[in-house]
Amino acid sequence: SDGSIRLHQMTSEYPLMQWNDSTNGQPVIALQWALTRPAVFFVLDASSNIYIWDLLENDLLPVAKQTIPSENVVTMALLGEPEKTNGLLGLALAKEAGQIDIQYVKKKWAVP
C-alpha cells in the first residue's frame, strides 16, 4: 500500500532486496515477472503508471515508466510464450470501464 517492493527468496523471511517508495507512494496494484526474460518485472500502481524493472540493467530504479492516460487501469497480466525466442511480450491492461488494452513491450525487455 505504500509503494514498496520486496524481493524474497523462498527459504528466508527476510527480503534479498527492498525498494521503498518505488511508485512515489502510490499503492502497487499488480506486479508480474516477464515470461520471456527472468530479470525483468512490471509494476502497476494505483495511478495507472507502469514501471519496468530490469535488474540486470539497474537494480536500484525502474528502467522505464509509462503512464496510461484517460482511464484507470485496475489490473494487468502478461502475455507471451517463454519457450519461444521471438521476443514477443505483451501487457493486457484491464480498464475500469471494462475495456482490455493490449500493449507490446520493446524487444530489449522481452528477448531472453
From TrEMBL:
One of its GO terms (biological process) is intraciliary transport. GO terms for molecular function: dynein heavy chain binding; dynein light chain binding. Coiled coil: none annotated. One of its GO terms (cellular component) is cilium. It comes from the Eukaryota. InterPro entries: DYNC2I1 (IPR042505), WD40_repeat_dom_sf (IPR036322). PANTHER family: CYTOPLASMIC DYNEIN 2 INTERMEDIATE CHAIN 1 (PTHR16022:SF0), WD REPEAT DOMAIN 60 (PTHR16022). This is WDR60 protein. The lineage of its organism: Eukaryota, Metazoa, Chordata, Craniata, Vertebrata.
